[in-house]
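note to self: the first set is below, dont mix up w the second
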Amino acid sequence: MAAEAVVYVRTLYPQNRRSGSHSHRRLCSCIRACQPSNDKSKFYKELGLFSLRKRIEDTVMNAEMLAPSALEAEEATRSKQEEIINGYDLWDDLNRTNDSLLKLADSSEVVDSLKDLQFKAEEARLITELAGKDVIDYRLLKQAYTASVDIKKSLDKYKISKLLKGPYDAEGACVIIEAGSEGELSENQIWADRLLKMYTKWARKQGYNGRVIEKRASKIGGIKSAIIEFESKYAYGYLSGERGVHCVTRSSQSQSQCDEVSLAAVNVIPLFLNTAPDLIIDDMDLDVSYIAASKHKHRVIESVCIQHVPTGLKVQSSDLYSWHQFVDV
């Protein structure tokens, strides 16, 4: 960058022969002095390094403040779970045994993650100190910053797991998206497709195992409905707040018309990963319907719908089944 200096020059013109007066004018001349910007570059570089080190130190300090007390509490919980398991015969009540073993495994996993968090925090602190001695080692500083990012993610994950205490928050999730039937149908279906892409992109970013198990495309663009399964822990806790009607409002091109609104309904139900409640369902309470079609001289099932009559709960699958597969199911 160049430093710029402005110099004002006052010039007296010669006498005007016609008027016999002197005219005084001020001329402004801009002189640019090109000076080296090394000092400014050095300042910004030092400022960036200070900000980076401050961020690393704050993350490490938060981890060192939280991890010891959290680790002590989680180790006490694990010890209590071990006492419960040792206090009775595992073969007396298999359901109770499975529940206790799952809780013990969860406690052990949390304890291991907190120990790993403490190790990473200590490592990041030592690397930061080494990187700042005499000559700054940018390679070490980058390594410390990467470790601090992992520490922050682990801290956030642990804090959120403590907040998600609902009965099914630790389970996976099944997200059902349906385009709205009111308003402009094509825009509703396009909006539903955008929601589908948003949830799948969010799953990839979170490292979740999300897969689209059903997708009903529309001929005019977008989707009619879709079902996504997230087979990851705490997925239901994260996504349960998405339940409801999602809308987007767009300004109408014509001032005389109202704003255009696109609607899509989202439902979230828990997806049991390790255990599922033992439910006894009478076959007489189920209403099974299907849509059949002929394809390549074979009878296939395009859609199967099962409704539990007493509760009104309904499940549907749009995968193609052969008639023999449908009879077996």
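second set (the one i keep forgetting abt)
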Amino acid sequence: MLDRKLLDFLKAYKNSSITLGKLEQFCPGSTTYEDFAAAVLSLEEQGVLKKIDSSGENYKDPSLANKYAIKKDALKLHHQQIKQLQLTVHPLISLDRYYKLSEKEWEKDYKYIKKIDAYLKNKGVPQLPVSMPQRSYELVADEKWLEAGGTKVLERLGVGEQLKIEQTPDPLMLAVAPKRFTSLSHLHLVVENKTTYYALADILCETAFTSLIYGQGWKASANLAYLPKQLNLPGCEHIIYYFGDLDAEGIRIWWYINEKIKTTPAVAFYRALLTKQAKYGKQTQRPDRRALAQFSAYFSRDAGQQLSNLLAEGRYYPQEALSKDELQEIWRNSAWTTS
């Protein structure tokens, strides 16, 4: 419809007022005056255009003002929709966040908001947690919707916790030493990179460790808490060590994991890295002060200062700076606490 086309034009129009002639220029050449006038009057009724009386009128039938003020706030028509819908949705649903988002985001989420509203009204707040795919199917008839980004909609609506979605992260990729399963205390080493994982996997049974875990960067932060369950070793003591790249990102990964589950830097590996020649190439990374302070506390003052200086200069140590032989020697012969 013409009024919709004019509305889209006005949204992109930067000035706060517009002449009638400018509006006419935007219309297709085949547009009749009657259709044009009806579209302009419709925008007046919606509060988008307000005639400027001092500009005079064109005295046609119907008569239009020669100039209009553009009410920018009224162009955000989805705000009116948000306000109206808020009056009818389930009390747990809040639409406030959508006032700060674009109309495009509102239109994209609208059908899902309606479905979530219908679920809460028809079935109420769930009493028991279920897996993400199951809840996703119950909400929108698509078991992959939540995993594909639908959780963001739940967060916007403020109903994520109330819908009781059981988090089921991917299983950890790990190697195990079965002979240690009878112990009541277990050591675990998480390594950030695949190369280091395979360099150490061959000698796992020669160490005091029950498992070697491939952390896959940030991925370990989501699933490491499930380690005792995955190993079927509940009720035991689990001591976790972490070894990643010695750069701002690697330290931040360790810190984030440690916030969720107690994890100790594998200091023996890091000390060996600090004896090597650091590389340049991480100038864009910025150390997290909290993470760096907590990480450095495991080292001597001199080593902590060395680390702080090299990060400030954009230098770093990849795990691969240690050879396979060096990695294995350190893991076999370093003193690892078991309590």
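remember for set 2: The chain has a mean pLDDT of 89.
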